[in-house]
Design goal:
Length: 284
């Protein structure tokens, strides 16, 4: 895809805001804006725009009115809390080596990326940003104190399609907190789920505290290996579906996806799927 033909203005503006230090004051700020008579949705849109110098009442008014309502929308936490993984899996904070199993949270009114990027007919790239009107807790794994793996609304939405497509013998690269393995394993048309993960601490946390809660745990096999080493030679098993989820976001995902693509030839019959590929394609 020729990214020169795309308009990344909106995406860059929202990324600038999300990378700023807004978290500690977000709830109070939005509530203060709402006192002027606007909704929480409108308040967050104004705050996110004005914080990065978008002139919402002046020269940028048309741009703001057209695109910010498309990009920023209120969401419901209930639809995620009803996810089968959320209803089944719970744990206390646990640490093993450099990895820690824990819970993180979105603050009230805190914006987050809810789904893949889209674009309108003119080529403007539109991020999907949402917020809740209450605090929302989600499971996570930290490595050396940095959040690396999560099960957030974003993961749930962006894995929905590959989970629907998965069948037969499934291979997934990257364990995380086992959301993909759990969701596939719960399907009647999935015979097995093989997970390739190189971090022994993550494997141990998963095996000790998460996997025992899986109703489908007998379908799950964990292989400790580097994903690229594993993919570089033909597998002993003829997998039907391969899901690749080794990256943190689009920035590191783009080069890793390109590196993985040639290995598809080693799998005779498998259908391949790559996490957030719809977003990554804009960066290739």
């Amino acid at each position: 895809m020729n990214t020169q033909e795309k308009d990344f203005t909106l995406l860059n503006l929202i990324a600038r805001f999300l990378n700023s230090n807004f978290e500690t004051t977000i709830s109070k700020t939005i509530e203060e804006i709402m006192e002027t008579g606007v909704s929480d949705e409108e308040a967050l849109r104004f705050f996110m725009a004005e914080s990065v110098d978008v002139d919402t009442y002046g020269k940028d008014r048309n741009f703001f009115n057209k695109y910010y309502p498309l990009a920023i929308k209120k969401s419901s936490p209930e639809k995620y809390q009803e996810d089968e993984y959320y209803k089944t899996i719970s744990f206390k904070n646990q640490k093993h080596g450099d990895s820690e199993l824990c819970y993180e949270k979105y603050r009230k009114y805190e914006p987050f990326v809810e789904d893949d990027l889209t674009e309108d007919f003119t080529g403007v790239i539109i991020p999907k940003i949402s917020f809740f009107d209450r605090e929302f807790t989600y499971p996570a794994v930290k490595e050396n104190g940095r959040i690396w793996m999560t099960v957030t609304p974003n993961e749930i939405n962006t894995m929905k399609e590959p989970i629907q497509k998965a069948s037969g013998k499934v291979l997934t690269l990257g364990l995380g907190l086992g959301y993909f393995a759990f969701s596939c394993g719960m399907k009647d048309n999935v015979k097995s789920v093989t997970v390739v993960e190189k971090n022994q601490d993550v494997i141990d946390l998963f095996n000790n505290f998460i996997l025992p809660q899986f109703p489908c745990k007998d379908k799950i096999e964990i292989i400790k290996a580097d994903a690229f080493d594993f993919m570089s030679s033909p597998p002993k098993t003829d997998f039907d579906f391969v899901f690749c989820d080794l990256w943190h976001d689009v920035s590191d995902g783009a080069p890793m996806l390109k590196k993985l693509k040639p290995y598809e030839k080693n799998f005779k019959r498998a259908t391949f799927s790559y996490w957030i590929e719809n977003s990554i394609k804009y960066y290739l």
